[in-house]
Structures are given as C-alpha cells and as structure tokens.
Design a protein that fits this description.
Helix 2 packs across helix 3 and helix 5 packs antiparallel against helix 6. The chain is about 35% helix and about 25% strand. It starts with a strand and ends with a strand. The protein has 8 helices and 13 strands. Strands 1, 4, 5, 6, 7, 8 and 13 form a 7-stranded mixed beta sheet that branches. The protein has a 4-stranded antiparallel beta sheet with strand order 10-11-9-12. The protein is α+β, with helices and mostly antiparallel strands. Bound molecules: (3R)-3-hydroxy-3-methyl-5-(phosphonooxy)pentanoic acid. (3R)-3-hydroxy-3-methyl-5-(phosphonooxy)pentanoic acid binds next to helix 4.
Length: about 325
Amino acid sequence: MNKVHVISHANIALIKYWGKRDHQLILPSKSSLSVGVAALATRTTLSIIDGKKDLIILEGNENGKLLEPVRHFLDTTRALFGINKFFSIYSKNLFPTASGLASSASGFSALAIGLNSLCKLGLNKQQLSILARHGSGSAARSIFGGFVLWHKGLKPDGSDSYAEQIATNNDWPTFRILIVVTTRAAKKISSRTGMQASLETSPNYTHWLAQSENRIGPMIDAISRQDFSTVGTLAQADWEDMRDVMLSTTPTLDYWSATSHTIIATITKLKMAGVACYITTDAGPHVKILCLAQDALTIKNNLYHIAGIVEVIESDLAQEPILIEE
Ligand code: PMV
C-alpha cells in the first residue's frame, strides 16, 4: 500500500483547553472535553515519495504560513519513530466555506492516522492521540468521534496526556451544533499565542483552571444521562469563564465582532423565552450554538435576519475518522 486517504473531523470544546504546561510537547494546563463535528470534515491524502523533501498542498496551496506547522509535525514524527521517508500530503476541507474555521484538529489527526498506516507504526488510538497532540492540542481529541475527553496527564513526558471517547455519535443522535460563520477571514491572533498570553497575564486564569477542571466530572455524568440542560449550562459557563480570561489578558484578547455580539444577544433572548440553546465560541468571532434537533430550525429562523452572518452550518456529532488504504 503506498497511498492512504483519511477523513477526520474538527471538534468543538464544551470544556475548553486554553494554556499549556509544556510548549514543546503541547501538554495542557487542564483536561478538556469536546464534541466532534460531522459537518467540519477534512480529507487528507498521503503517500510516500522519492526525494528528500515533503510535498505539502493545503487547500490547493503549496505555499503559505499554514504549511510550517505541518512541516514541523512531519519532522517531529520522523524523529519520534526513526522514519527516513518523505511524503506528499494533499489536504482539503470538505465544508462549504473558507471561513477561518479551517481546523488544525481535523488536519493533524488525519496526518497522524495517515502516517501510522503508511509507515506501519502500529499505534493504537491512545498513541495516535498523543502523536496528533504534537501537531495541535485539540487534534488529540479528533482521533475519536462523539464526545471526547482529553486527559491533561501529569507525567513530564506527556505519555498520559491523551484523549478518550466518552460517548459515540450514536449514543446521542439528536445532539446538534449550529456553527454561525461570521467572517471568511482567518483569525487575528492564533490560539497558540493567545493562550500563552492568558496564562502569563490574566488575573482570572488560576480561578478558571480550578472551576473548569471541576466541571469535567458533572459533564461526563450529564452526557451519560443525556441531560441536555446540564451539558449546555456547564459548557456555556466554561465558555463565559474562558471569555473572561481572554478579555482580562494583556493585551486584551477580543476575538468577537459586532456580529458575534448580536448573535450572542439573540440566543440569550431565545433561551430566556424557553428554547434550549447554549453558546460557546473559540479563538475567533464565529458563534457555536448547542441545541437538540427539535429546536434547530427555530434557532436558525431567529438568526437569518442578522447582518454579517455568512452562513449557518448545522451539524450532528462526528463519527470516528475514516481511513482508506489504496
Ligand atoms: O489546539 P489549538 O491550538 O487549536 O487550541 C484550541 C483552543 C480552543 O479552540 C479555543 C479551545 C479548545 O479546547 O478547542
């Protein structure tokens, strides 16, 4: 076999990761928990090539600043496993818009799975999660579908900092994520830079760390009972705390736009009117809404009039990544 295709999905954290205890190994300061997003899939094709240089084409581009982390990841993988091969990598997002939603999580998890297969590394899911983590922290979670917990781990070598599946997509088929896309531009400050600044300067950081870690147990319990209001309440509380951390960072990290604020206000009003919907955002202006299938249309109908919305993507939970060996 000399060519593999991998389809992997982005994930959205319900309990966030924001800050590292080790930069080299990408070890987080706390555990986090996410949902895989079926609609945000990336397809990556890998093969081994002759020569002494990788060929990397992302979204049709052979150049650009996105390539550097991929090169670094390939070098890291070669060094970790003593591989002396070079690769061609073609990666494309399967979702309909180039919106700054381009996900390092789906990209690096796909690479880890593809390299494992091509180079016959024999890694299990736990080891794949550790490998993907070297690309970006959130990629550790995209090795699985459904609900996923990334253990922060305690060991300095990172061998206990990997993700684990809590529930599959089939365990909660009515769970929905609405991704409200507010711009096609890439994010202003990378999560890598932003989270480091927060850890170093936000007076709220330590408080959030403790609060957030304490939400993991009740969140896992609520997921097992399909208790949507508890899942949503915990997720929104964790996002609100992370937002406070971001805003109290020096210099302040204000990832939101006027459109994001209008969407957040609209959803807050809708929730007060009795619709079960909860907000989360990440290092960018897009707003992600957690809801159940029965309420998705009502929520979307309340958003369409808002100027500045590029698109609303409705998604159910992602299944496991798919590997096709040619
Ligand atoms: O793994 P990164 O560098 O893409 O960081 C992800 C950070 C957040 O999306 C803001 C939170 C999270 O847990 O996914």
